[in-house]
Amino acid sequence: MTATKRQAAEVVLKGVAKRYGPVTAVKPLDLIIPAGALVTLLGPSGCGKTTLLRMIAGLERVSEGRLTIGGKDVTDLSAGERNVSMVFQSYALFPHMNVRDNVAYGLISGGAGKAVANEKAEATLAIVGLGGFGDRLPSELSGGQQQRVAVARALVLEPDVLLFDEPLSNLDARLRRSMREEIRMLQQRLGVTVVYVTHDQSEALAVSDLIVVMRNAAIAQAGTPRELYEAPDNVFVATFMGEANHVKGRLQTTSAETGTVHLGGLSVPLSHRGLADGEVDVVIRPEAIRLVAAAETGTLAATVATANYMGAHAEYNLDTPVGRLFAIAPEADSLRGIGETVGVRLADRGVFAVKAL
Ligand SMILES: Nc1ncnc2c1ncn2[C@@H]1O[C@H](COP(=O)(O)OP(=O)(O)OP(=O)(O)O)[C@@H](O)[C@H]1O
Ligand SMILES: [Mg+2]
Predict the structure, then answer these.
(1) Among 119-123, 175-179, 241-245, 350-354, which stretch is predicted with the lowest mean pLDDT?
(2) 17 alpha carbon to ligand 1 midpoint, in Å?
(3) Where in the chain is the domain with CATH 3.40.50.300?
(4) Residue 343 vs residues 97, 268, 296, 303: alpha-carbon distances, Å
(5) Residue (of 273, 300, 303, 298) closest to 289 by Cα position
(6) Residue 146: other Cβ atoms inside 10 A
(7) Which pLDDT belongs to residue 2?
(8) What is 11-230's CATH topology?
(9) Hey, which of 27, 42, 50 would you mutate to test ligand 1's pocket, going by the most ligand atoms within 8 Å of its Cβ?
């Protein structure tokens, strides 16, 4: 195995669903995972992420639908018959085997000779930065190093698709951050298709080409990190992808694409995205809120309920006619006082009219 790019495989799901008796773990869904992309499945506990991943791996049979990998229909193939490797949350290393044998195991059980398997294992350990660690036992490694062995063990099989199920959740915050960068760099260097499950939205934003947000066994929205953060379709996605205030406003369409939303005394131009005129759900990112003098016209009247100095910025809760708003202001030096009346303006970015879901 070499660290060069190879032909990557596209994964296509058509109407794929999973039921366990009366429980629907994944409702019928369509999804294209582009060749060579890193796609994350993101969503709260129980939304169906692991089930979807295990169906791609062939560890669960689909209840309905078809699944192709690299143009080949693999729906009826077992895990062993698909060229797919999975990295588990628990790493699942063999504790009594050294690192080299752990990595070589899959090759040997697939029929490779010991010498060839060991050579490939060493080469793959070098790719994940563990050259020279082959003789150690897993217990003689740090958590991050064990994680890399698990990645090497999956990579050595030269899979068309690499699947990760919450691979970093056993690591502390700092290590998580550096390991996610490593996985991303490795994926880009090798050009391998990766499906990556997480419930951490900042991890998903950091590493993904595409994020699939799941909710209640279905896809809530799929898109690039920027699309999901800056153009969420619905309240769930908006609030799941970072902090957001959710209020009601009145929409008035002004053109084929644009409209004005009225929030208290404030008029905000935005994309109406096909929503009907009248009351709509509006999502406001905390950093889109600007505090100005109460006397300024065309602002939303607000009273400062809480004000916190956070070092690099200030955080406020503001009571307004449309409800309480959480705001982040970049200038921490001129902190407003509790009870002070101020005016609120909104930036062009970070304010969306969305579906209620
Ligand atoms: N073998 C099973 N039998 C019955 N129900 C199951 C089985 N496996 C999963 N489920 C159910 O299917 C749903 C989706 O489970 P899944 O493990 O895919 O969720 P998840 O998104 O990975 O959650 P988490 O973030 O907690 O890992 C859950 O309601 C779960 O209880
Ligand atoms: Mg899971």
Answers:
(1) 175-179
(2) 13
(3) 11-230
(4) 65, 14, 7, 8
(5) 300
(6) 21
(7) 46
(8) Rossmann fold (3.40.50)
(9) 50
The residue whose CB lies within 8 Å of the most ligand 1 atoms, and thus the one to mutate among 20, 201, 215, is: 20
CB 290 within 8 A of CB 279: no
CATH 2.40.50.140 occupies which residues in the chain? Answer: 249-354
> For residue 357, what pLDDT band results from cuts at 50, 70 and 90?
low
pLDDT band at 189 (very low <50, low <70, confident <90, very high): confident
Check residue 356 and give its pLDDT. Answer: 75
Q: Rounded to two decimals, what is the model's pTM? A: 0.86
C-beta separation of 296 from 281 below 8 A: no
Whole-number mean pLDDT of the chain?
91
Q: Which CATH superfamily is domain 249-354 in?
A: Nucleic acid-binding proteins (2.40.50.140)
The rounded Å distance from CA 45 to ligand 1 centre is 8
Dist. CA 173 → ligand 2 center (Å): 19
Neighbours of ion ligand 2 (CB under 5 A): 50
50 touches ligand 1 (CB under 6 Å) = yes
| Protein residue whose Cα sits closest to atom 5 of ligand 1 | 20
